[in-house]
Amino acid sequence: MQTVTGEFMKAxxxxxxxxxxxxxxxxxxxxxxxxxxEGKLHMIxxxxxxxxERGDLIHIPRFTQHRSRAVDGAAVFFTVKYPAGSGDxxxxxxxxxxxxxxxxxxxxxxx
Length: 111
Hints:
By secondary structure, the chain is mostly beta strands. It is built from 1 helix and 8 strands. The protein has one domain (about 1-90): Jelly Rolls. The protein has one helix spanning about 100-105, and strands at about 1-5, 10-15, 25, 30-45, 50-55, 55-60, 65-80, 95. Strand 4 (about 30-45) and strand 5 form a beta hairpin. The longest helix has 5 residues, at about 100-105. It is globular.
């Protein structure tokens, strides 16, 4: 992962191997934008359950439950978060209580 931190934002290019990604979580203090550069992600974003792919730009508002998992091979994406905080892209990571159980309501989710 390549990351850079500015005065107000932090950004990174992230590669996720097939099937990998964080559990359902949210960022109470950060707004996030993600641009898919290569591959596909199965994305849960609030009440949405969809596949995003190269060229798709996703906005993740603060307090929005979400997760992404690479499907059909690895995925590469560029992500920007505001505010910069410490510069760690996982700084404002808050796992959703009972994340695995909550994900079962989405038809595209597989364990």
